[in-house]
Amino acid sequence: MPQSLSGRLRIIVGIDFGTTFTGISYVTSDKTSANDIDVLRTWPGNGCPVEGNWKTPSVIAYKQENPSATRNRWGYEVRGNMTSCSWTKLLLDQSAETAEFDDPSLQLAAGGAFFHLPKGKTAEQVCQDYLSNVYNYLVENLKQRMTPEVFNITPMECYLTVPAIWTDKAQSATRRAAINASFASRHLDTLRMITEPEAAAIAALKHDLKPGSVNEVVVGDNILVLDCGGGTVDITTYTIQKTEPIIEFEEICVGAGANFHKFMLTRFGTSFEKAPPKFKGAGSHFMQAFEKAKQSFGSLENDTYEIGPIPLGSNHKAKHYDIDEECVILSKADMTDIFAPVVDDVLRLVAQQINKALEVQKKRINLIILVGGFGNSDHLKKAVDTWAGKNGIKCIRPNFCQAAVVRGAAIRGLEGTVPSKLICRRHYGFRLSLIFKNGVHDEKNAYWDFGVKRSRSHVRWMINKGTEVTKSTSFQCPLVRTLTQGASKVFTMDLYSCTLDSAPERAENPRIIRVGSINMDFSSVDLSGFKTRTVESGGFHQVETQVEFEIRLDYRSESGVLGFTCISKGQNIGHTTIEFQE
């Protein structure tokens, strides 16, 4: 926290920007309990339930694409017949490897209703526009709660959640979209990132698992957070280190990460595929009806579920489709079939993570915490309960599990609760050359530099996947660059990463990806103490300087994204930034 904010009243805000829904929580720093945290329950738009909702849809409809709209619409304001943008958040991480539960039929079935981008807009810009509406609504609520005068002089400390499995580029893009949407735009306002499983763990540990509760945890317990949202499944494991006066926990190992549309394609074929997006896209009455059926399935003993309206024609069996009401009729067996692939994938991911914790860290998981929008499904809860029971593991679902992530984000700011140790999720390193070794390196990669034979295109990994990282941990990588006299003193170093358990040695490996470019400005550095040489080029003599420096990587920087520092001759040269690969 900046020194200027020490002891000063702050507004602490949690933002759970989800694939399908978004939530907001807030609390002032003079409060002392997680019970003081407010979660927004009322949202703009006629679609918001009268009783309120923990979240609003992550959907935006632009005025230019909807002639009847007088302005851009968002959340519950978006109607089913509007051209809208939904699931846009997932487009921020297009470079990520395909997850096990991804299904390409989803976009096909929705007729482009999902992942739609207006002409001239990028995914990041759409997310920015959506988050701008969220920010304005948050500010409006805070001004009503504490008066405009008090709000205007009170710094706001925001915590934005992201999936733990996301790439650094996606995390940075999310942060950039939020900042451009006005989060952290006022003097002394800040924005930090926190992973969704970490936020969920904090919320559960502070409420449902606290000392004295029915499900209290004890020192040495190993817990698995299973965050099942609308578009992602995030799993992370933690060990409880301390329970009083403040719970402390650490990450154990690297985390892992309902296709109704596929079922509809199978049963109704082209009738469903050709139905206009306004009937089956995000915000449509049809999909809202399915969401309600999805949440109630497993808790109510309904024999059938009627989902509609959607026009599919008359060539369908009466037991499957009511043509008069334009409703799809689903039996309990149908609902089970729809959920089966997703539930199977979730259980497989859970088993993989539990086995990894046991094999790699010798930690046996004894508790599963189920959170997220889909985590609220009783059908999923029963399936996880059954699997966990057979394996001697207890499973709980916190109260208001849909709001667990957004509450945890605010608790993080209120109490400073944070894992004491994290596990690095991928290798990070730099492409460089090594001194050539006969019999080891290939001659085709050889070249001479400063009178030394070298081998090009190797990767020096400065931090390895699975490395334990504390708040004070930093990683150093000594490097050398040759600077020609008169040339720019701005250096660029490409940062690479790899998710393989064993990192390759050479940069040509297809599983190594370029994260981005680190830019360093050496204009103010005294180069007189470095080794130099004079070379002839085109009849002219040029002086080349061999500049030695060190890059330090902060895996847990204050902002929540990768942080970098460049050191030369023992001094921080500053001006170190990263531009992520497009």
From TrEMBL:
Gene3D superfamilies per record: 3.30.420.40
An annotated Gene Ontology molecular function: ATP-dependent protein folding chaperone
Coiled coil feature spans: none
UniProt entry keywords in alphabetical sequence: ATP-binding, Nucleotide-binding
Highest rank taxon of the organism: Eukaryota
Protein name: Actin-like ATPase domain-containing protein
Record organism: Cercophora newfieldiana
